[in-house]
Write a structure and sequence with these properties.
mainly alpha; Four Helix Bundle (Hemerythrin (Met), subunit A); 7 helices
Length: 239
Amino acid sequence: MVALILLTLGLLSNPFNHINYLNLVNLGDGLLATTEKLTYIFCVLSGLSIVVYNLIHPRLHKPLLASAAMMGLLGISAYAFSSSQSQQFSTSEAAILVSNGIASALMLGSVLGAMITGHWYLVQNKLSMSPLKNSSIIYILSVLLRIGLVSFSLFYYWNAGLANIDFSFLKSINFHSLIFYGRFAIGLVIPLILGIMVWNTAKIRSTQSATGILYATTILVLIGETFAKFLYFSTGIPF
């Protein structure tokens, strides 16, 4: 019930920026209107799958989790396409936006999953270390994927020479440039180092240290992704 209330409040806050969910029925029949509708539909279905997951018999847990993940991926893709359509992005730019959105969700989900996994060892210290090791490896790979996609995005936009993209904020020390460098340091480099530390502490069965590091890592990832979204809406470049 708490999850359902929080999801409802989240939707009422209009989290998808330019998409006006209150007037979805009045939108046209074009591609933009369709993807805007699908964004909310998939978001609601994903959230409901998680809520139902917590209420029913464990036998259906795997299908519900798979459904939630699939609806989430489709929702991220629909939001990215609606953003690209509203700003008249090319197909390549839309693909970059979708890839970065999915990579961001994977990074956030993997660090939270690893942190929750680490908590089990606080009450059952005889559990196998494989789940925590595997969780840390998935997280590290997700960070590397995010770094690769962000670097590719910058390379693409830098060489594309698009008129609506302005890199002048990198030529001096200002608010935007500090957010930019903070996004890489706080949101990518340090979380990667901490992820490696988690894997090493898991190898020596230091589960409390691993869980503590994951707390700090989660906060840094959230800050980094918040910076990334700010930079995207300010510059139009997926960070």
